[in-house]
What we know:
Elements: H1 2-14, H2 21-50, H3 56-80, E1 83-84, E2 95-102, E3 105-109, H4 117-128, E4 132-136, H5 142-155, H6 168-176, E5 181-185, H7 188-200, E6 205-208, E7 214-217, H8 223-226, E8 242-245, H9 247-261, H10 280-290, E9 301-302, E10 307-308, E11 311-313, E12 331-336, H11 340-348, E13 355-359, H12 363-372, E14 377-380, H13 385-388, E15 401-402, H14 408-413, E16 415-422, H15 428-432, H16 441-445
Helix pairs in contact: 2-3, 2-5, 3-4
Bound molecules: nicotinamide-adenine-dinucleotide (NAD).
Keywords: Membrane, NAD, Oxidoreductase, Transmembrane, Transmembrane helix
Organism: Oncorhynchus tshawytscha (Chinook salmon)
InterPro entries: Ald_DH/histidinol_DH, Ald_DH_C, Ald_DH_CS_CYS, Ald_DH_CS_GLU, Ald_DH_N, Aldehyde_DH_dom, Aldehyde_DH_NAD(P)
Amino acid sequence: xxxxxxxxxxxxxxxxxxxxxxxxxxxxxxxxxxxxxxxxxxxxxxxxxxxxxxxxxxxxxxxxxxxxxxxxxxxxxxxxxxxxxxxxxxxxxxxxxxxxxxxxxxxxxxxxxxxxxxxxxxxxxxxxxxxxxxxxxxxxxxxxxxxxxxxxxxxxxxxxxxxxxxxxxxxxxxxxxxxxxxxxxxxxxxxxxxxxxxxxxxxxxxxxxxxxxxxxxxxxxxxxxxxxxxxxxxxxxxxxxxxxxxxxxxxxxxxxxxxxxxxxxxxxxxxxxxxxxxxxxxxxxxxxxxxxxxxxxxxxxxxxxxxxxxxxxxxxxxxxxxxxxxxxxxxxxxxxxxxxxxxxxxxxxxxxxxxxxxxxxxxxxxxxxxxxxxxxxxxxxxxxxxxxxxxxxxxxxxxxxxxxxxxxxxxxxxxxxxxxxxxxxxxxxxxxxxxxxxxxxxxxxx
Length: 446
Ligand code: NAD
């Protein structure tokens, strides 16, 4: 079954159907129509999957997607055009350029936490770049996955952009097939399996993974601003995973977060804006991380609803289990550090994170944090905003992933940049002669 789907996508790609720019634009506009027409159904599916609030659906998933589509539609001709490059003396009268061209059939494997954005954003780039693409949404967000499978063929060419639903075995079956690129979003354990499967066919990969993204709060900052953000129950790849701050401000940080959480009213559990954990396994996993701690804030849970209150834990030792794996839930440990040097050291001796956040009014602190650490992306004095700009490449580094996307970066990531040199024959005698033996050209001409 999976084999036939991939085969058909490839045949259609090879027939050249996905290449004409007008076709790509038409498909992208149709995808835009799907989002506009079906926004209500998409929000309902997300409510069923993850109790996503109606307000958050456009904000966290659909607006970004629509921006990606309209950017691709308006810039496609420019992105797909040959890109002239500098010439040397020997090639001065030739045409020398880079031609972006489609790779072939792309496999897109999405994750459950943003089931629409994480499958459709790569798809926008795949279509724009002229590829065929097989879309495999996460089985954990099952309502979104089946809605996507029902909707996509009504709006897009179904041979070129099929949706395959399923879990581990279906994904592994897909991974046995040969693709021209695999774009995977999810955890790093599966990321390694994807890379292994891709290696068998020498298929390039984009791996959008996760990890522990630190948030350093300097003592020199307005704490009300620093403690203001909280979305999707912490189930966001670039969510601040833990806070680093000096002991002297720890209690004020906790207090700042308490004030922020009043957004949800006195009881987050009854707030329509507060989500739930995706499934029981993840609920148990997140709760187990809390074992042995007393929460400074929150700590309540209800397994029947997979509800976990926004929870803050103070004075977490660096070697605690909470600090070993990505939390991906509404728990926020605070680890105290003695100063900026200590914070930088703490971050640098761990795996390279997907994101780093720094809150400070002190330019020197910001400058040092930027210069002396690395991460996929960084936002200073806010969280997650670097993700929202499609002019910035989004992706990880080291263990947090490989490859980048958003806007033109997705187009480039899913294109082959072909080096093209079209020689002008007119110059052969004058320009090319010195290249050929014998080296003594005077002699050769005689
Ligand atoms: P998930 O469980 O939905 O898995 C992701 C995909 O992998 C799914 O489509 C699933 O079917 C497939 N899969 C699972 N097990 C597999 C196996 N054994 N073989 C082949 N395929 C398999 O999502 P998840 O991994 O729980 O997602 C959460 C993780 O993803 C977190 O680490 C998070 O940080 C990361 N994430 C990263 C980004 C990013 O853009 N960098 C975005 C979202 C999530």
